[in-house]
Each structure stands twice: as C-alpha cells, then as structure tokens.
Specification:
This protein has six helices and 17 strands. The protein is an alpha+beta fold and about 350 residues long. Helix 2 crosses helix 3 (about 95-100) and helix 4 packs parallel to helix 5 (about 230-235).
Length: about 350
C-alpha cells in the first residue's frame, strides 16, 4: 500500500514539472478602408459618407464590420482554439471603428483590446493593434512619425508606424505595425517614400537591439513592396534564407511564397505579397522554452475569394472604385506561429 502512494506521488510530481507546449498566432490584416460614416473635416474622408462618392451608409458599414468579424473569428483557430493572440491592422480610420469591430458579437468573446494613435495621413487612415489580453500584456506604445523625402511623390504626411512593447505569455516582445506609402504614381517614383518608412523602422529596432541583443522583435504590415524589393532586403534589412540570418537583420518567411507566385493581393492578374510579418534573429537562436518561430501562412478561404468574373481567384474586395462589391478585403491576412515548451 505504501508503494502505491509513492508511485502516485511521483506521477503527480512528474505532471506538475512537465509544462505544456504553448502556441501563439500573430497576424496582420489590411482591412481595406474601414471607415465610419461620419465626416471628419480634418481629413479627406468625404467619399466614405452617405453623401460621398461611395454613398457609404450605415448599412454598408454594418455589413463591413460583420464580414471582417467573421474572418477574425476564424483567423488562427486552425492552430489555436482562441485564434490569433495579436493582430496588426491597416486602413482603419480611427479607434471608433476598431472598438466597433472588437465588440461585434462574432468576436466579442475573444475580448480583443485596441491600441491606436491618430496619424496625420492625408486620407485619414491609420494602423492599429488588436490583442487578446489573456495572452498579451502591453506596457508601452508609441506612434513613430514617418518623414517623407521632399523629392518623393508623396511629400506629405503618411501613416505612422505603431510601436508596441509588452509580454506575450510572460516573455517580452516588440512589435511594429506598418503601412508604408503606396505605389501610386509608379513603383520607382514612389520608392523613396517606402525607403523612408523602412529606415525609420530599422533605426528604431536597431536601438532596441543595442540595449538587448536578445530582444524579440516583430515587424509586420502592408509594406507596399514585395519580399525581394530593396526597401525590405537592404533598407529594413531582411533575408529569406535562415543560413544568412544573423543578429541585426530580420528573417522574412515570405520570400519562398513570393518566388512561387503566391501573394496576398492581385492587380491585373499579377500577385503581390505586400502583407508581411518579419522576425528578429532571436526567434531562432533561442532555447525552446522561449518563443521561437514555427511557420508562416496566408489565410485564404473560399468564402474570402471571388469565384467568378474579372476578379476570379482574387481576394473578395469591398470596393471596385466607387462600386460596392460587398466583400471582405482586397488583401488576404498573413500570420506566423510561435511556440515555446
């Protein structure tokens, strides 16, 4: 009888000492013009009002929220039952639309919280961060203003870069949410504007690395450039090959996707992969007891994809010019999976 108690005690101790594997999904999603219906005289949002060019009504706004909440409710659940712990977002007008989104009945149970700063972007669109407070605890957030070069085609205010520092299940991580200047006016002509955003992000990340070489840093966003473009490889500092990864540059898991013709958005039957999530060296040179990279993926489901017409196979967009198509977004969301033992 005494031996039975000893065996049971040993088994119980073994179960206590063995920690479960933790999984986290980190995502990014360009929400394609998530505006409210109220005119803001400080920005150029007139088209997204009931009397504007898009005849943007409360009904359209409500449907847009439903569609996005439906995606977010399913986003990441194939990896973790609660879905994505952290989601960076772009093309949102203000914190009102983000709070309306996270309070939607489809995702209210996930208890997403919002981090957002108003930028001075001419169109009035910003970036933001959604996070489940059960997993992520932010304790510092800052908007980094991008100063565009005077000779760039976008020598006016653009989106800020959102920087957030916090603990993901007890381990500190640094997150940058980006939406770099567009290619409107031509890729080459607009390149200096994206380079300016990339340089700001890199300099800020480098300052963190100088203080802590083991800092875990995630850069995400709609970069309006592909994984093999200079703004990402040279200016931001990234590689798609693990053998070339070292402290001071980022790993870009999207290079092989792009090289195979896989993307997150399409234009004139050409796929681009602007929506990227990059990770610092410390996610790879780390004990498995800490967060480390497992895989990356693009979340694209049939319900999010056009099944006929000129856009067949494309992400099901909300707008085609001023024509309301009633879709989700013209971008697919991306994600990375982290694990620790």
């Amino acid at each position: 009888m005494k031996w039975s108690y000893v065996i049971i005690a040993c088994l119980a101790l073994g179960w206590q000492e063995k920690k479960p594997i933790e999984i986290a999904v980190i995502g990014f999603y360009n929400l394609e013009n998530l505006f409210d219906t109220t005119d803001n005289p400080l920005v150029n949002d007139d088209e997204f009002t009931p009397n504007g060019g898009k005849h943007y009504t409360g009904k359209i706004y409500t449907n847009k929220l439903f569609k996005l909440a439906y995606v977010l409710n399913n986003f990441g659940v194939q990896v973790h039952p609660r879905g994505a712990a952290i989601i960076g977002v772009a093309e949102i007008e203000n914190d009102t639309v983000l709070n309306d989104l996270v309070k939607h009945f489809l995702i209210k149970s996930k208890k997403y919280q919002v981090i957002h700063f108003d930028s001075r972007d001419a169109r009035g669109i910003d970036v933001g961060l959604l996070y489940q407070s059960d997993y992520f605890h932010p304790y510092f957030a800052q908007a980094l203003e991008v100063t565009l070069p005077g000779k760039s085609k976008e020598a006016y205010f653009t989106r800020d870069i959102l920087y957030v520092k916090g603990k993901l299940s007890g381990e500190e991580i640094h997150i940058y949410v980006n939406h770099w200047p567009s290619r409107r006016g031509g890729e080459e002509r607009s390149a200096p504007a994206r380079a300016a955003a990339a340089l700001l992000c890199r300099k800020h990340a480098d300052s963190i690395r100088q203080e802590n070489t083991a800092a875990k840093i995630i850069v995400m966003g709609d970069l309006n450039d592909n994984p093999t473009d200079n703004s990402i490889i040279e200016t931001l500092g990234a590689t798609g090959e693990l053998k070339n990864l070292h402290n001071g540059i980022f790993f870009n898991p999207w290079v092989p996707y792009y090289n195979r013709g896989i993307g997150t958005l399409a234009n004139r039957d050409v796929w681009g992969l602007f929506d990227q999530i990059l990770l610092s060296y410390s996610f790879f040179d780390t004990p498995t007891k800490n967060w480390h990279f497992i895989k990356a993926g693009i979340y694209h489901q049939p319900f999010m994809t056009e099944n006929s017409g000129r856009y067949k196979g494309y992400p099901m967009r909300t707008w085609d010019g001023n024509h309301y198509r009633g879709g989700f977004s013209d971008h697919y969301p991306t994600y990375v999976v982290l694990r620790k033992n």
